[in-house]
Amino acid sequence: MERSVIAAGGLEAERVGRSTLDAASAKLIGASGGPASRAAVQRFLAGAAAANIDLSRFWLVRRPGSARVLASCLLAPSTGGTGMVFTSTPASAEETRALELAIRAACDHPDGVRLAQSLLDPGDDAVRRAVEHSGFTHVGDLAYLRRPWREPEAPDGDWPAGVTVDTWREGDDADVMAALERSYIDTLDCPELCGLRRTEDVLASHRGAGVWDPELWWIARRGGEAQGVMLMSTFPDQGHAELVYLGLGPALRGMGIGRRMLRQGLIALGARRCRDVTCAVDTRNAPARRLYEAHGFRAFSERVALVKPLA
Asked: How many other CB atoms are found less than 10 A from the CB of residue 207?
């Protein structure tokens, strides 16, 4: 790994290398020392390797000449030009300043990441302050919902006149992107994100979730124009599926299309015998929450979502 050092306010941010990997990892995961700490670090690094997590955008902050790590931040890239920010938790004002420097260092050296994301527990106030002071914008509070697998429900009747819903076929990416863009019009789901990412990147990000299966991607058209999509993926190793995205443009809203598409997707997943189905929704999006809850989804976690464009 390249060694880089950035000095600011009596602190130094340094790109993590082989000699500092264990110490930076221990700070990141909150391991406090001793044999149990070393074992936790090894589990973390083994998990990162198994998940193919790139550690080249990993930064730590120390006082000049000190071996003690005050903060660490990992910018882990994913598909579609996005990267997830993972940070240590500050325990003092100095560690908060150090964390801000670590986050800025990671974001100033994105190496191809175009949008940094941070998903925090609602009570992570100290981390949130450091993230926001580093230039991140709050784009919504996310509720994570889960529906246990059960026998598929009976399908609805025919689609409304002029509406067709088909699974993805070769050459349909342009229609998927057109439908995505139409679904963002007056959206209630993290509207602050609109315009921050290229639609091509959004498509790649959705396709990179879990195992992509074209039979679990549906395009809703009205009068031949793509107006909505429902994108699902499976995670066979974990035994569950994810509703990655369900969105409709104005031309399809208020017609019960979302309900019909969701039921169709659950029927398709039933054949795969997934243990459960998960999704995330902006807590402000009351219509979507009502739809999901009517189909057996229940909240099990919440996250505060913040983002920062890097390019």
From this structure: 19
